[in-house]
Amino acid sequence: MPASSKAGTAPKDAGNAPKSVLNRVAGYDWETVSKTVDLEGWATLPGLLSMDEADKLSAIYTDEARFRRKVVMAQHGFGRGEYKYLSYPLPPLVAALRAAFYPHLARLGNAWEARLGKPSKYPVRLSEYLKLCAKTGQKQSTPSLLSYVEGDYNCLHQDKHGETMFPFQVCALLSKPGKDFEGGQFIMAEQRPRLQTRGMIIEPLNKGDAVLFTANNRPVRGTRGEYQVKMRHGVSKLHSGHRRTLGIMFHDALT
Q: Closest by alpha carbon to 8, among 142, 159, 135?
């Protein structure tokens, strides 16, 4: 994909993606995926990345020129470990995946809005959605690479970067469980009104697999109609080794 003419600004063609990546993402059974996300708040996406793609994305982590910001979790009370926000222009594969996923997720997001009696709020194309982000001052890239070593973990949280927030994220595993690391499971919590919190371990995930998950709240149908539950995500403590992941968010950030 062509580079942006200005660092920190989304490329104008961010709504496009190569046909090969579009076909890869379209190849998932989106009816089943959507139903699973409706019921659980998340769904696994096996084999999103090849082993070679996972290795090449992981290798970017040491190239500081590719990132706009580094966050050391312990300095902010987020847990232990670190992550780096990729700069615009994004690596071509990351940009392509982000654009390819967006229409499927916008469709599901608008269906959730309808269930809550609200009008559609997510345009068909990623490029159009990023323009809405820009109107609220959100122009910085959010896709990131995350890195954990022994003893690291990520506290349960939501990723909020401004007024405009997309309801879903995709996280792809770039390391091999049992070989590159032990522990470090992706976990989610569902906070239901007036009920105890439900915890979930997302498994099995292998290198190259991804999880699609609710980034904020999701609607649940109860006896009195639709209500919202709050979703949080995190990573359990890494027992050994080194774990890296690619996080794809769809809204841009203020900083």
A: 142
Rounded to an integer, the average pLDDT of 197-224 is 93
Q: 24-27 contacts: CB < 8 A, separation 24 or more?
A: 24/48, 24/100, 25/97, 25/100, 25/101, 25/104, 26/100, 26/104
Structure tokens at 18: 């190569």
Share of the chain above pLDDT 70, in %: 93
For the stretch 158-185, pLDDT in tens is 988 889 999 999 999 999 999 999 999 9
Cα–Cα nearest to 245, from 63, 74, 18, 60: 60
Residue corresponding to tokens 């690291």: 152
pLDDT tens string 108-133: 999 999 999 999 999 999 999 999 99
pLDDT tops 60 at residue 15: no
Instruction: Give exposure, 61-81, as e/b (b: 16+ Cβ within 10 Å).
Output: beeeeebbeeeebeeeebbbb
Q: If DSSP codes are grouped into helix, strand and coil, which group holds residue 194?
A: coil
Distance, CA of 135 to CA of 43 (rounded, Å): 31
Longest dimension (CA), the chain: 53
41/54 Cα distance (integer angstroms): 25
Q: Which domains does the chain have, with CATH numbers?
A: 19-248 (2.60.120.620)
Name the nearest CA neighbour of 186 among 167, 199, 198.
199
Q: Quick one: which of 200, 188, 179 has its CA closest to 243?
A: 179
